[in-house]
Amino acid sequence: xxKFFSDKHQGIYRSRNGVILGxxxxxxxxxxxxxxxxxxxxxxxxxxxxxxxxxILYFVASLFMKPEPVHPIQTDDEQAFYDTYTSSRHQATRxxxxxxxxxxxxxxxxxxxxxxxxxxxDRKLNNGL
Length: 129
Description:
The protein is rod-shaped. By secondary structure, the chain is mainly alpha-helical. The chain is 70% helix and 3% strand. The protein has five helices and two strands, in the order E-H-H-H-E-H-H. It folds into two domains: 1-69, no CATH class; 88-129.
């Protein structure tokens, strides 16, 4: 029995391998169904409702659906970063800058403690000789 919802990502994303903006393939990936059926439904609704309503709906859906991540999301932190990145790239880059500055501070503290110990040992060895 097939699962109705896919486990590979949270939320509905536009596929990067879709024909036109990836909306149908993104929906089919999310609901774990064949993309053929989504396209058939789209064509039937297109014929019944007319050209403009379904085109408008399709393009609005493509605007609201986030693009599928290039690399699969493994953790909740990655999911949170991806959500931040797709909503505000400026905020995501600022978050990354703060994380790297924090890492740089930690590395500098480690280097200081290592170089202090090495300097202390060198001084002791040079004074003893």
